[in-house]
Every structure is written in C-alpha cells, then in structure tokens.
Design brief:
The chain is an alpha/beta fold. The protein has helices at about 5-10, 85-95, 130-140, 165-175, 220-230, 265, 275-280; strands at about 20-30, 35-40, 55-60, 65-70, 80-85, 100-105, 120-125, 150-155, 180-185, 195, 210-215, 240, 260, 260-265, 270. The longest helix has 13 residues, at about 130-140. The structure holds flavin-adenine dinucleotide (FAD) and FE2/S2 (inorganic) cluster. FE2/S2 (inorganic) cluster (FES) binds next to loops.
Length: about 280
C-alpha cells in the first residue's frame, strides 16, 4: 500500500486530539453542584483505563476539561464525577440522559494499585479528591487479600457536602478496612470526627516501611497529609499525590499543565512524592 493511500484511510478518530462521541447514559445528582455521569461510546467499546487516569470531556460549543475516572474499571461505561465550578464543568453537569459529549482519553499516569500489592495501603481523600481515588478503592477492595492493612481517610467541608455518602457507609460496614471520615464544620446531626483529614493519620496502624499512600484533594490538604505520613515514617518514594493543573492538549504538546520540569498530563496526574518534593513545597508553581 502506498503512503498516499494509507493517509487516505487514516480515520479522524485515530487523532488523539479528536474527541469520540459518547452518549450520556445516566446522571446521578450527588450534591447540589456535583453530578456523576455514565458515558457510553456511540460506536464500539470504551477503552480500558487505569485508576487515577483522566479523560478530556468536551461540552460541544463550550469547551473541554480534564475529568478523572471515578468509576469501576470493570464497568461498561466511563464514569465521571463533575463539580460545576465554571463554564465547561457547568455545561457538563447540566447534561441529561441521551445528550452527547466528546471524549478524548484515557490519559496520564494512574495510582500504583498493582505495585502496592503485598503492602499496607493508606488512602487519603479530601472533598472531590475522593472521585479519582474511587477506582483505586474498587480495585483494592475487589482484591482485598492481596493487600495488608487498608485504611481510607476522607475529609469533607461539612456533612451536607459529603461525596458518595451512601458508599462510604457501605465501606464502613466492612471489617477488613479502617475507614475514618471527618468534617471541617459539623452540624447538629453529625456525631463523627471534626477537624482536618491529616489529623486522622497519627491514629492509624500500619507498617510505615511497607505502606503505600495515595492522596488526592486540595493542594494544602495534600501538603499536610504528606507531612503527617512522613512524620509517621512512610518513605517519600511510597507516597503518591494526584496533581491538578489546567489542561489543553493532555498529550504533552502545549505546555499548559507544566509543573516545574514535568507536565501533569503525561508525567502525572499521579506523581511519586519524592520526584516532586521540591516543587510541591513551592506554592506559587
Ligand atoms: C487531571 C485532572 C483531573 C480532574 N478531575 C476532575 C474531576 O474528576 N472532577 C471535577 O469536577 N474536576 C476535575 N478536574 C478539574 C476540572 O478540570 C476543572 O474543574 C475545570 O477545568 C474547570 O473548568 P471550567 O471551564 O468549568 O471552569 P473555569 O472557567 O476554568 O474556572 C472557573 C472558576 O473556578 C475555579 N476553579 C477551576 N477549577 C476548580 C476546581 N477544581 N475547584 C474549585 N474551583 C476551581 C477557577 O479558578 C475559576 O475561578 C480535574 C483537573 C485535572 C487537571
Ligand atoms: S496539557 Fe498540553 S502539555 Fe499538558
């Protein structure tokens, strides 16, 4: 086959910058400003993904944003949990079942779920940061016997804004994981922990030399969590954080997501803490 004819048969969908069309199958209204969407490709199957990876979701006529996978990788659909913070995320949260959306991905480096087998696992999430960690939690719980002690720590601003509340309750019923939830501000019905999520770390039982930690949430919360985990003796190369920077191309071409010498889209979003410790400490980067 000549070069010319192979160029002719190349399909636009093979271009990593061209979104594939997906259909919104289901919308769950998690919180007043947050929805979870199930998306199915209009043709063919959805690609496989690793927990911690993200897709670029394109709201037609509005724009494109990076959104993490938040569902089980065994599910048929892509599952995404989106908070309305601006024009694009707002347009996505208003989609109804049957609507179409553009999807590029999956992209990026995910959580070290496989590498953590045999070790204790500590998962620390703040607010919407539970969404990118949820696929990793599903994997660990589905293969529970492959891990040592497993702890999930979750912090929410208040009980009303608690993401996946029903699921947290279900996980809490399990006897084979430690789960602790805290809120910054309690209401009259809240009888649980009050305070920031890193404060829960010193109460945990784990073998610091043989623990893998995964953290996602606001950067300030991740900084304090890293400090608490380091104080508890976990080596820096066993701590992983998920970084968030504005994305455009998502494939390492445009430089929008630059974070020191790295690009969050292709070197992350999940990054090993020892590799970014210096730039992570500099708040302006
Ligand atoms: C790798 C990666 C994964 C992500 N995963 C998710 C996800 O699973 N779910 C999700 O909802 N978002 C996720 N985000 C963030 C999402 O991409 C942004 O919310 C989105 O870019 C906002 O775009 P916008 O056009 O709607 O708002 P913009 O117009 O860009 O922003 C409007 C305002 O909101 C502020 N803002 C922007 N982002 C946030 C934010 N995350 N929280 C609070 N304020 C913000 C801006 O500073 C601005 O003031 C992820 C980002 C990255 C890089
Ligand atoms: S978004 Fe373009 S280089 Fe990362």
């Amino acid at each position: 086959m000549s070069t010319a004819s192979s160029e002719i048969i190349a399909t636009p969908a093979a271009d990593p910058l061209v979104p594939r069309i997906y259909r919104v199958e289901k919308v769950s209204h998690d919180l007043s400003d947050t929805v979870t969407l199930e998306l199915m490709p209009r043709d063919g199957a959805r690609p496989a993904f690793e927990p911690g990876q993200f897709n670029m979701l394109y709201a037609f006529g509005v724009g494109e944003v990076a959104i993490s996978m938040s569902g089980d990788r065994k599910a048929e659909a892509f599952v995404h949990t989106v908070r309305d913070v601006g024009a694009v995320s707002g347009a996505i949260t208003r989609l109804a079942p049957g609507a179409v959306i553009g999807v590029r991905g999956p992209y990026g480096v995910g959580w070290p779920v496989k590498e953590a087998e045999g070790s204790d696992v500590v998962i620390v999430a703040g607010g919407l940061g539970l969404a990118p960690l949820r696929p990793a939690i599903y994997d660990v719980l589905a293969n529970r016997r492959r891990y040592g002690r497993v702890a999930i720590l979750f912090g929410s601003r208040n009980p009303r804004d608690m993401l996946y509340r029903h699921e947290l309750e279900q996980w809490r019923q399990r006897l084979d994981i430690d789960i602790a939830v805290t809120v910054d501000h309690a209401d009259a019905d809240w009888h649980g922990n009050v305070g920031v999520v890193p404060a829960l770390i010193p109460r945990l039982a784990f073998d610091p030399q043989d623990t893998v930690a995964m953290i996602c949430g606001p950067e300030v919360m991740m900084r304090f969590s890293v400090n608490a985990l380091r104080d508890a003796g976990i080596p820096a190369d066993r701590i992983h954080v998920s970084m968030e920077r504005n994305m455009k191309c998502a494939i390492g071409l445009c430089g929008h997501c630059q974070f020191g010498p790295t690009f969050v889209c292709k070197d992350g979003p999940v990054m090993r803490y020892d590799r970014i410790a210096k730039i992570f400490a500099a708040r302006e980067i």
